[in-house]
Design a protein that fits this description.
Radius of gyration: 19 Å
Number of domains: 2
Structural class: alpha+beta
Distance between the termini: 36 Å
Organism: Colwellia maritima
Protein name: Nuclear transport factor 2 family protein
Number of helices: 7
Number of strands: 10
Order of helices and strands: HHEEHEEEEHHHEEHEE
InterPro entries: Cyclase_SnoaL-like (IPR009959), NTF2-like_dom_sf (IPR032710), SnoaL-like (IPR037401)
Strand order of the largest sheet: 2-1-6-5-4-3
Pfam families: SnoaL_2 (PF12680)
Length: 271
C-alpha cells in the first residue's frame, strides 16, 4: 500500500471518529490523531492554534455545541506530496450538513438544516497529523439565516456543487504522470499571475488565463466574493475588482501545494 493510501485511510478513520463524537468526547479524538504540537491554521476568528487541546477549545467544542447531527459531505478527497518540503498531505473539500440548533459565533440559530462549506488540509508524519489548514465559510452560514454583513458581491453566492465529473473523491492511487501534468498546469497559472503582479497589469487580457484555464471555467469563491462562470465573467466579477483594490501584490509561495490525478490544491502564503 502506498504512503498516500495509508494516509487516506488514516484521515478517513479520523473523519469517521469526528462524526461519531460530540462536544464532550471530541477532545479524545483530536488527541488520538493529532501530535501534541500540531500546528493548526484556521480562518478568523479561530486563527493559528497549537496542539489538539487548543484546537478543541477554540473550534471543535463550540462547533459541535452549535451544530448537531454533523455529516461531512465530501466533494474532493485527495493525497500527495507537497513540492516545497516533501511533506505528505491529505485534503478534503465539501460541506458539513448540520442541524443549526444553537448560536455560533454570534450567529443566531435557525433550528434548520445548514450547509457549512469547508476545505481541510492535513499533513501526516509517523501516523499523526502534525499540521492542518482548515477553512470554513462563516459568511455563508450568516447568509443562510438571513444576515448579509457585506456589500453586494460581484459574483453569486450559493451552496456550490461538487465537480461536474463526479470524480473528486480519489480513494485509489492515480498515475503519478497525471499529477505531474496537473502540477505543470497549476505552476504555469501561478507564474502567469506572478508576472501580472510584477507588471502591475490589473486589466490583463483573457488570453493570459486561456493558456491554463478552459473558457467555460467556474470560480467558486467564498461568500462575499461569490461564484463566476467563464473567463470574461471571472475577470469582470472577481479578478479585476480584486486586483485593482490591492496594490504592491507579491506572491510568496504556499505552505502546501500538490496534485493527484486531475486535481490540484494549495493553501497558505509563505512570507
Amino acid at each position: 500500500m502506498s504512503i498516500e493510501s495509508q494516509n487516506k485511510e488514516l484521515i478517513l478513520a479520523y473523519y469517521d471518529a469526528l462524526e461519531q463524537s460530540n462536544s464532550e468526547t471530541i477532545g479524545e479524538v483530536l488527541s488520538h490523531y493529532m501530535s501534541d504540537d500540531c500546528q493548526w491554521y484556521g480562518v478568523h476568528p479561530f486563527n493559528e492554534q497549537k496542539g489538539p487541546e487548543a484546537v478543541n477549545q477554540v473550534f471543535w467544542q463550540p462547533f459541535l455545541q452549535a451544530f448537531k447531527n454533523v455529516q461531512r459531505r465530501q466533494d474532493v478527497f485527495m493525497a500527495g506530496v507537497s513540492g516545497n518540503d516533501e511533506a505528505n498531505w491529505v485534503t478534503s473539500m465539501g460541506h458539513f450538513m448540520v442541524q443549526f440548533d444553537q448560536d455560533w459565533l454570534g450567529i443566531p440559530r435557525s433550528g434548520k438544516v445548514a450547509m457549512v462549506r469547508y476545505a481541510d488540509f492535513n499533513c501526516i508524519e509517523n501516523g499523526k497529523i502534525v499540521r492542518s489548514g482548515f477553512f470554513c465559510d462563516i459568511i455563508s452560514v450568516m447568509h443562510q439565516v438571513g444576515i448579509n454583513p457585506l456589500p453586494q458581491a460581484t459574483g453569486h453566492s450559493f451552496i456550490y456543487p461538487g465537480p461536474r465529473t463526479h470524480d473528486g473523491i480519489q480513494l485509489d492511487d492515480k498515475d503519478p504522470a497525471e499529477a505531474e501534468k496537473t502540477m505543470a498546469l497549476l505552476n504555469q497559472m501561478i507564474e502567469d499571475f506572478s508576472q501580472l503582479n510584477q507588471t502591475a497589469n490589473d486589466n490583463y487580457p483573457p488570453e493570459i488565463l486561456e493558456k491554463t484555464w478552459s473558457k467555460d471555467m467556474v470560480w467558486y469563491g467564498p461568500t462575499g466574493i461569490g461564484a463566476t462562470y467563464s473567463i470574461p465573467k471571472f475577470q469582470e466579477q472577481h479578478s479585476y475588482p480584486f486586483r485593482q483594490g490591492l496594490k504592491d501584490k507579491v506572491f510568496n509561495g504556499h505552505i502546501c501545494r500538490y496534485a493527484e490525478g486531475n486535481y490540484a490544491c494549495f493553501f497558505g502564503g509563505l512570507i
